[in-house]
Design goal:
Shape: elongated
Oligomer: single chain
Bound molecules: zinc ion
Strand order of the largest sheet: 1-2-3-4
Structural class: alpha/beta
Distance between the termini: 41 Å
Helix content: 40-55%
Order of helices and strands: EHEHEHEHEEHHHH
Number of helices: 8
Strand content: 5-15%
């Protein structure tokens, strides 16, 4: 018995082997868990292998239970995985990428350490309403990162987390409006994502 509100997740394993993924999913389904996770992805394999594993497993997982893609991912990967039926994610990308100079925007990822931003007075993302984008410029944040000033990594992390939170809100809104396919296509187009061609 679990405490109220607790859910026991099973984790489907099987690496990049279709037969082992299916066997793992089927045997875990027999036990009847509260929720199902897909594990062992995002550990160095290609994006194609990651989505292949998802495509093998997702038909087995009950739609009325949470489905969790572990350790994913970049914004376009999240949008794509939701389109395939995933409900939940966890990832260090927003802060880890932020600390290394990558800012996420609707038009893709910017490496703010690039010299082209050294005199750029625009915010990280011109369409973002976060506190960082309202108050700081790309060139100032770039300067902070180059000086290894801790404020720089904090500002980058704040913006990226805000971007991810807003992205998940937009995903939920699109699902509720029954317009996810249109949202996905528009997002992947604006983001200039390689995943657009695999839709
Ligand atoms: Zn922002």
């Amino acid at each position: 018995m679990h405490e109220r509100g607790q859910r026991l997740f099973a984790i489907v394993q099987g690496s990049s082997y279709e037969d082992l993924r299916r066997q793992s999913a089927e045997e875990l389904l027999e036990i009847d868990f509260d929720a199902y996770a897909i594990g062992g992805v995002s550990v160095g394999e290609s994006v194609q292998e990651m989505f292949a594993a998802l495509n093998w497993v997702i038909p087995f997982l009950p739609k009325d239970k949470p489905r969790y893609f572990m350790g994913i991912g970049l914004p376009d990967q999240i949008v794509k995985a939701v389109g395939l039926g995933i409900d939940m994610f966890d990832c260090s990308i927003p802060t880890r990428y932020g600390r290394h100079g990558s800012a996420f925007t609707n038009k893709g990822k910017l490496n703010i350490l690039n010299s082209e931003f050294s005199k750029d007075l625009r915010p990280l993302d011109e369409s973002c309403d976060c506190g960082v984008c309202q108050n700081y410029t790309r060139c100032y944040i770039r300067h902070l990162l180059n000086m290894h000033e801790i404020t720089g990594v904090r500002l980058m992390s704040y913006h990226n987390l805000h971007f991810y939170i807003k992205l998940m809100e937009r995903i939920r809104t699109a699902i509720e409006a029954d317009s996810y396919a249109e949202f996905q296509k528009q997002f992947l187009t604006d983001y200039n994502s390689e995943l657009l061609t695999t839709l």
